[in-house]
Every structure is written in structure tokens, then in C-alpha cells.
Design a protein that fits this description.
By secondary structure, the protein is an alpha/beta fold. It is built from 10 helices and 10 strands. The strands form 3 sheets. Strands 1, 2, 3, 6, 7 and 8 form a 6-stranded parallel β-sheet that branches. Helix 4 links the parallel strand 1 and strand 2. Helix 4 runs parallel beside helix 10, helix 7 packs parallel to helix 8 and helix 9 runs parallel beside helix 10. It is globular and about 45 Å long. The protein starts with a helix and ends with a strand.
Length: 228
């Protein structure tokens, strides 16, 4: 009597039956995570200006929808809310430098730029966020002096490919549509404090899944979104 006949005459519990079928070569089991197979590309979700009192709700929305993101924190807020920096890391997020007080950096001298960047590196590290490798200049404004200071601290400058316009009052529908324009490797600008962005997160997640894209980390080598 062959294996399949014995199984038909004497049903086994589901787990044992599966084992028997594997032994008989009738069932193939993949050890690769199902999600990995669905990722045909990666995008960088970024949130500026945290951490704040809004951070817990944002982190909850992201984790409930299986998303990871890069949080570009202001140093002054990291120093004031160290527990929220730790919460970002514990939720699987990456933490970047967004200056200490969010000034227009190109209008400052090199010493002031250095202070903005170095104090943020220190405050994020002291809060448990690690030493950032990524830097987003406020307003996306940069120049050769800013870049020189970034290089001094081993930081890669990250601007964005898509602007969600959440800072400009964009509604949740518009933010979802903006995320829908993301391509493989690209980065979107969003903000920690925007309730509309938080409301858009479930649909952003659904849209990415429908297009075979996953939320990834931003590579310090290339500035592009890659696999976590």
C-alpha cells in the first residue's frame, strides 16, 4: 500500500498529515517569509519634526499597518522627549537628524550649522536613538557649507522624491495619492504632527501592497530606499 493510500484510509491530524505528505514528496513548504516574496521594490516613508505628543499615535498607525519609516527628529524635541525616541526605535523605525531648531541653514555660518547638526546627533544618541547616519536639512535647503558639515559627521543628506504636502494642509486623500506616485527606491516627505497623514496611513499601506512595494530603510550609501 503506498503512502497516499494509507493516508486516505487512516486520516491523520493536520500537522502529521502535512509531515507525511512532505515525506512523500506531495507537498512543498517554503521557508521564505510570504511578505518577502511580495516585495518587488522598496520606498522610504519619512516623517519630519518629531518626536512629539503625536508620536505614539503615529507609531501605532504605522505598526498596525506593517510599515516602517525613517523619523527625522529635531534635536530640541529629542532632548525634550527621550522616551519617544526610544519608542520610535522599539517600534522598528529608523532615526535621522533634522537639525536642532529647524532653521534655514544656508543663512547661517558654518559654526552655527555645526552646532545645529552636532547637538542633534548628541541628543538623539543620548535618548537611545543611536547615532544618526542620515540628515534632512530643514525645508530641504542646502548648500556647500551644509554639505561640508554633514560630511564631517558622516551624514548622508536625504531630501525627497515626492512631497505629500501635508505641511501645506493636504487632506488624507491627497496624501494617499502622493504616496501612490512613489516608485522603487524613492522617498516621500511627511510629518510627525499631521493628523491627515496619520489618517492616510492604512490606505498608503494598502496602495503599496497593491503595487508590490514595501516600506524600506534609506541606505546611507545611496540615499535610496532599500530592503530593511
Amino acid at each position: 500500500m503506498n503512502t497516499r493510500t494509507r493516508l486516505a484510509l487512516h486520516p491523520l491530524p493536520t500537522t502529521l498529515a502535512a509531515v507525511a505528505l512532505v515525506a512523500a514528496g506531495s507537498l512543498t513548504v517554503s521557508s521564505a517569509p510570504a511578505q518577502a516574496a511580495a516585495c518587488n521594490g522598496y520606498v522610504g516613508l519619512t516623517f519630519d519634526d518629531g518626536p512629539s505628543g503625536n508620536t505614539p499615535a503615529l507609531l501605532n498607525a504605522l505598526t498596525q499597518n506593517g510599515l516602517r519609516a525613517t523619523m527625522f527628529n529635531q534635536g530640541q524635541y529629542a532632548a525634550a522627549n527621550p522616551s519617544q525616541v526610544r519608542a520610535q526605535v522599539n517600534a522598528g523605525m529608523w532615526v535621522g537628524n533634522h537639525s536642532y531648531t529647524h532653521p534655514h541653514l544656508p543663512q547661517l555660518g558654518q559654526a552655527q550649522i555645526d552646532s545645529e547638526i552636532s547637538r542633534t546627533q548628541q541628543s538623539i544618541a543620548a535618548a537611545g536613538g543611536g547615532t544618526p547616519k542620515l540628515f534632512r536639512p530643514p525645508y530641504g535647503e542646502t548648500n556647500s557649507t551644509v554639505k561640508a558639515v554633514e560630511a564631517k559627521y558622516g551624514l548622508t543628506e536625504i531630501i525627497w522624491d515626492v512631497d505629500s504636502q501635508d505641511w501645506n494642509g493636504a487632506g488624507a486623500d491627497a496624501i494617499v495619492q502622493a504616496a501612490g506616485r512613489l516608485g522603487n527606491g524613492q522617498v516621500i516627505l511627511m510629518h510627525d504632527w499631521s493628523a491627515n497623514t496619520r489618517a492616510a496611513i492604512p490606505r498608503i499601506a494598502q496602495g503599496l501592497t497593491a503595487r508590490g512595494l514595501c516600506a524600506g530603510r534609506i541606505s546611507p550609501q545611496t540615499g535610496r530606499a532599500v530592503a530593511p
